[in-house]
Design goal:
Residues 11-435 form the TRAP C4-dicarboxylate transport system permease DctM subunit domain. The chain is an all-alpha fold and 445 residues long. The chain has a domain at 72-299 and 375-443. Helices cover 76% and strands 0% of the residues.
C-alpha cells in the first residue's frame, strides 16, 4: 500500500478526531497504531493481519519507552515543580508587587506591573497557562477594583501570560528541542531577546492605550515612598537569583538545562523554608500538582513520538518536501505559509497539540531549505504564543475569563486583546526578518 496515501489519510483522520474533542494523546497514538497496522497488513497487496501485529506493537511500545527514558525530558517535571514551589513560597508574586510599587505613579502602572509580573513569573515557571491563571487571580481583580477599563484589566494579563512560551525556561522549548533534536539550552537562550521585546511591546501598548484614554487607568490612590520602593525591590531577590541561575548557569557553561532546573528547585526549597514561607504541606501539594501536570505532558509527548515514527514510516514528509521544493517557493513565501498554518491552527488547538501535529512535516521542510532550527523554534513558539490569545479559542483569554467570572464577558476580553495582538504580529515579523534577534545570544556561547 502507498505510504503517502496512508499518511495523508492518517492526518485527515487525526484532524477529524481532534475536531470532535478526542484527547490529543489518544488521537495521536491511535491513528499512528492503526496506520502502521494497515501499512504492514497490506504490505504485499493482500490483507494479512498476522504480518502486522509485531511491527505495530514494536513501533508503539519502543518509541514511547525511549521517550519516557529520555534524559532531556526529566527537566519538565523539575521546571514544573520549580514553578509550583516558587508560587507556594510567594517568590513569583513578589516580582509583581515590586513592579507595582515602582510603577504606581505611572499612568497605567498597575497594568504594566502585571505584564512585568507575568514576565518574571514566566522566567521561573515556563508555563503560559499557569502564568495567566496565577497572575490573573492577583492582578485583574485589583485593577477592576481600582476602576481600570475592564478590557485593559483582563487583556493585559492574558497577553502577559503568553510570555511563558518564550522567556526561559519554557516547556514548549523543551518539547520542541526533544522532537527536533536541537539543543534545549540554546533554545532557552534564543528566547531571551524575543521575550524581552514582546514584554516591552506590551508595555508600549498599555502606554499608548492610557495616553489616548486616560480614564482607562485611574491614578493609583496614595503615594509610595522611596523606602517602600527599596523594600519591594529587595523582596524580589529570590526570583532574580533563580533566573540568574537558569540563564547565567547555562550561558556560562556551568550547568546544563536539566542541572539548572535541579539546582533551582533546591534553591527555591531552601529559600522558602528559610523565609518561613513554605511548609511541608505546601511542598506536598506542589509535588502533587507537578505529578498531575507532568503526567499530562508525558502522555501527549509519548503519543506524539509514536506519531512521528509513523510519519517517518509512511515517507509522507519526504514527499511533501519534494513537492514544495519542486514548486520553487522562496523562503519568504514558505515562512508566510507556515505562519498562516500556525495562526489558523492556533484558533482551535492548544500549543502542544499544534506542535506535535505540525513538526513531523515542517522540520524536514525547513531543513531542506537550510534554515536554522534554533531560529525556526523561536518563530514557532512565537506563533504558538499568538495562538494563546487568538479568537475564538484563545486559551489564556478563557483562563482569565474563568478568573473574573461574569464581571467581564469573554467578548470584552477579546476586544482588548486585539491591541496586544497587533504588537505580537509586529514582533513576529521582526523575528522572521532578523534571525540575529534570536541567534545573537546562542551564537555568542
Amino acid at each position: 500500500m502507498d505510504g503517502t496515501l496512508v499518511g495523508l489519510v492518517a492526518f485527515a483522520a487525526l484532524i477529524g478526531l481532534l475536531a470532535i474533542r478526542v484527547p490529543i494523546a489518544f488521537a495521536l497514538a491511535g491513528v499512528a497504531a492503526v496506520g502502521t497496522f494497515v501499512m504492514f497488513a497490506f504490505r504485499t497487496g493482500a490483507f494479512n493481519p498476522d504480518r502486522a501485529w509485531r511491527p505495530t506493537s514494536s513501533l508503539v511500545f519502543s518509541n514511547s519507552f525511549d521517550l519516557i527514558h529520555s534524559y532531556d525530558l526529566s527537566m519538565i517535571p523539575l521546571f514544573v515543580a520549580l514553578g509550583h514551589i516558587a508560587y507556594k513560597a510567594e517568590i513569583t508574586t513578589k516580582i509583581y508587587h515590586a513592579a507595582r510599587v515602582w510603577l504606581a505613579s505611572v499612568p497605567g502602572g498597575v497594568a504594566m506591573a502585571s505584564v512585568f509580573g507575568c514576565g518574571g513569573f514566566s522566567a521561573i515557571t515556563g508555563s503560559s497557562i499557569a502564568c495567566a491563571s496565577t497572575m490573573g487571580r492577583i492582578c485583574s481583580p485589583e485593577m477592576l477594583r481600582m476602576g481600570y477599563d475592564k478590557r485593559l484589566a483582563t487583556a493585559s494579563v492574558a497577553a502577559g501570560g503568553t510570555l511563558g512560551s518564550l522567556i526561559p525556561p519554557s516547556v514548549l522549548f523543551i518539547i520542541y528541542g526533544i522532537f527536533t533534536e536541537t539543543s534545549i539550552s540554546s533554545l532557552f537562550l534564543a528566547g531571551i531577546i524575543p521575550g524581552l521585546i514582546s514584554l516591552l511591546g506590551f508595555i508600549l501598548v498599555i502606554w499608548l492605550w492610557v495616553k489616548r484614554d486616560p480614564a482607562a487607568a485611574p491614578a493609583y490612590p496614595g503615594t509610595i515612598t522611596g523606602r517602600e520602593r527599596l523594600e519591594a525591590a529587595l523582596q524580589a531577590w529570590p526570583a532574580v537569583l533563580l533566573f540568574v541561575i537558569i540563564v547565567g548557569g547555562i550561558y556560562g557553561g556551568i550547568f546544563t538545562a536539566t542541572e539548572a532546573a535541579a539546582v533551582c528547585v533546591s534553591a527555591a526549597l531552601l529559600i522558602g523554608f528559610a523565609q518561613r514561607m513554605l511548609s511541608v504541606r505546601d511542598v506536598i501539594d506542589a509535588l502533587r500538582e507537578t505529578v498531575v501536570q507532568t503526567t499530562s505532558i508525558f502522555v501527549i509527548a509519548a503519543g506524539a513520538k509514536i506519531f512521528v515514527a509513523f510519519v517517518a514510516l509512511t515517507g509522507v514528509a519526504g514527499d511533501i518536501v519534494g513537492a514544495v521544493q519542486a514548486a520553487e517557493l522562496n523562503v519568504v513565501l514558505l515562512m508566510l505559509a507556515i505562519a498562516a498554518i500556525y495562526l489558523i491552527l492556533g484558533m482551535f488547538l492548544d500549543p502542544i497539540g499544534i506542535m506535535v501535529l505540525t513538526l513531523p512535516l515542517l522540520v524536514p521542510l525547513v531543513e531542506g531549505y537550510g534554515l536554522d532550527l534554533i531560529w525556526f523554534g523561536v518563530v514557532v513558539i512565537k506563533l504558538l504564543e499568538i495562538g494563546l490569545i487568538t479568537p475564538p479559542v484563545g486559551l489564556n483569554v478563557f483562563v482569565i475569563g474563568s478568573v473574573v467570572g461574569k464581571d467581564v464577558p469573554i467578548d470584552r476580553i477579546f476586544s482588548g486583546i486585539l491591541r496586544f495582538l497587533s504588537i505580537d504580529i509586529l514582533v513576529l515579523v521582526l523575528l522572521m526578518a532578523f534571525p540575529i534577534l534570536s541567534l545573537l545570544i546562542p551564537n555568542s556561547m
